[in-house]
Structures are given as structure tokens and as C-alpha cells.
User: Fold this.
Amino acid sequence: MKFVDEFRDADKAHALAAKIASLCEPGRQYKLMEVCGGHTHTIYKHGLEDYLPESITLVHGPGCPVCVIPMGRVDDAMALASEPDVIMTSFGDMMRVPGSKGSFFDAKAAGTDIRMVYSPLDSLKIARNNPGRRVVFMAIGFETTAPSTAMTIMRAAAENLPNFSVFCNHVTIIPAIKAILDSPDLRLDGFIGPGHVSTVIGCRPYEFIARDYGKPVVTAGFEPLDILQSIYMLMLQLSEGRSEVENQYSRVVPWDGNMTALKVIGETMELRPYFEWRGLGFISHSALSVREKYARFDAELLFDVPGVRVADPKACQCGEVLKGVLKPWECKVFGTACTPETPIGTCMVSPEGACAAYYNFGRMNRHRVKEAVTIEVGRP
Amino acid sequence: MCLGIPGEVIELLPDQPDLARVDVSGVRRVINIGLLADDLPVPGEWVLIHVGFALSKIDEAEAAMALQFLEGIGQAYADELEALAESRIE
Ligand code: SF4
Assistant:
């Protein structure tokens, strides 16, 4: 089994790593959180932690939208899907997320009409083609996918489509980061800011982290070198005693985000007073619901949604993993009862989930990874 | 779903100004470009696509880098491409 995948710019990476190491104050420990699951994936795929000095720990954040959907919402979606005239639609990532009575996949196998779509616009098309059925789109995701749902709702309104609705589970990244900053369990030194979410919201919303919490934030791209460069930029800020928001990914992320995207989200959706996040509990103003103006497309109003809160399975420690308090291998069921084929928790479901990233790349613990590096590339 | 995938704009659909045909790793599909209304892409330009919507314009070098990254991640990208191939936005 190949543990560590050396990438084409390994030399540049080692050079950056040396610069990062030179910025570490002796005796100081650094904890940097990568908010986005895409970053977690790159970090484990390329074994980036092995390039870093022992004193820097990368902590995986809550930025995997599939991972944070609570069980109760999956059960709610299942209740909608089981109405006889309903066609439930959602992204492939949602299919294996466990609810208390199984996942969409299980329900589909048992005959419920649940269809995987690439885009909410594909759901819209299913609705047009099935006028006798009610088509529900289970919307999930951060600000990266919310504009797509928003545009789809506006399109449905323009067409006056009577049989399409959205079960809205969009979450917003800033309140989650704030919840982590306010959580007493964890002391972080800085944030690797999410890449694609920031193409929508821009960099400004992170300013409070630098200003009020005194922590640097660097919005980062997804290449291994992007992440190392961002860690370097964070370490430079820390060594100079600065805390600012910087944009390493400016080739894709405009400082002000995408105004049109923000406008359509604002047009069709509003903040919920609170929303439950798997493992993190209730966070206020952290999710979106469909605005009253578009109520006829809001599945929560059109259907009887049970809305029962379901506690996570006892064995599941996703909450700790999502907050970065535990590393995946420290969860008691990691790799044994909980695997990508039979996930107990959501962090194992999506390839962006921290547990799946560890599992897929054979990273059972940091020590073993170090060993693997020595064997594979012959570097101590 | 979280993956932003780069596509080259092939043509804007004449009768539907918010739709464009793009080429993603050889898969040609229609996506929505309405979120780039302030600065619509033209054929030959590259965009980053999320769930059927272009979210930002990128240059060709960035597109090449993003593609290489995606091809490197294997299954997740294969799944995304397969989903895109199934998609029929109109
Ligand atoms: S191993 Fe499974 S149950 Fe444990 S934290 Fe990860 S996803 Fe959750």
C-alpha cells in the first residue's frame, strides 16, 4: 500500500517547508485549522503534515456540508420522500448519509423514489417532466451551492412550476467558525480559509476573526503548494505579531466575492434563528431557509416535516472530529465499525470528510505516516 | 458536489442567454452562467463550475492546474464527471 503520494512540486514544497520551519518559535506549539474539507483531502492525499515541523498541527474544521447534516434532518427528508407522490432528488454525496433508519441509498433500494442529480436544475427538469408528481430537491451545502439553489428557485418561480420544492439545508460558514472560536476546548492560532466558499462570500466576512479574535486567516487554493504557501503566510503573520485576512487564492477568489450570487441568495433565502449541526449542536443564524416570498417552493411548509431531533449514535465522535478536538483515528470506531462502506458518522461518508480522508489514504496515526514517509521516500 | 470543476465555454445558447455549453474533460454539457451576469464569459474562456452553475471565471493556467488536481483525487472526480454526464440542464 502506498501511503504517501509525492507530488510533482515536491522540491518546491520542501523549500517552503524549510521557510515555515524557520518561522517556528522554539518551544511554541501551533494549531492551524483548515476549515474546508477539500483542503483536508489535499493535506492527507499528499501527506502535507509530514512536510511540517512537529510543532505545527493541522486541525480539521467543520467545512464539509455533508458531515454537518444532523440525523434528524435526514429522517425528515426520508419522511418527505416516503409520500407516495413524491420524487426526492439530491446530490450523490447525500445518498449514503446515515439517518436513524438508514440512508437514501437504503430507502431507494427499498423502493422509495429517490434520484441522484448533478444540479438542482436537473431536479427542476424532473419536475417539468413529471407534472403528476411532487418533486423535492434536498438542498445541502455552504455558500458554494446556495446560489445554485437560489437561482433554481427563481427559475421555478418564473416558470410558475407548481410541483417543485426545496427542502433547504443550506448552512453558512461564518457562524460555524465563530462557534469554534468560542468553544473552550480548543485554542487555535490561525485559519486556512475555505477556497470555493470564498468565491461567493469573498474575504471580508473573515475580518472579525483577525480583528476581534486576533487570529490570522489566509484564504487558500487546493493545490498542495497553495496550502503550504498559506501555512507559510499564516506563520509569517504569527512571527510578526500580525493578524490579518490575506488571500492566497486571489487567482480565483475576488476580495468582495460574487455579488450576483450573494444577491440571489438574499432574494430567495433568509437566516434561520438557529439550526442544528451534527456534532456541534445548535448554532444561531447558521443556516438558510426559503423566504416567505417563495413559500410555495418551500418543502418545509408544503409537507408535514416531523422535525424530531435524533441524537447521534453513542459510538460516534464526529462532533469532536468536526471541532478538531479529536483526530479521526482517536474515535473508538474509526476503521473498525465505521468505514466508508458502513459509515456510522457523517465524517466517513463524504470524500471531503476528515475520517474518510484519513481512512482512504491509510493514515491511521501521525506516527505511522512518518514511518511510511521514511520507507517510501527514504527521507528521515 | 463540493468540487469546483473547470470547464471551457464552447458557446452561449442563442435562445437562452443564461445557459452555455461547456467542455469538462471531454464531457460537453449545458450549464447556467447567470451568476456571472456582471461579466459573462465568452467562448474560449474557462469557468469554475459548481453543481451546474459557473461560479467564477478562471484563466487557462488555473484551469489546467485545477484539472490536474481533480484528476489526482481519483474517484470523487470520476463520480462528479459521471454525474455531470447524466445532467441535462435546459
Ligand atoms: S470514525 Fe466514524 S463515528 Fe468516528 S468520528 Fe469518524 S465518522 Fe464519526
Remarks:
- Chain A is about 35% helix and 15% strand.
- Residues A 316-318, 321, 328, 331, 333-334, 338, 344-345, 347-348, 355 surround iron/sulfur cluster (CB under 6 Å).
- The first strand of chain A starts at residue 30 and ends at 36.
- Chain A touches chain B through 46 residues (CB under 8 Å).
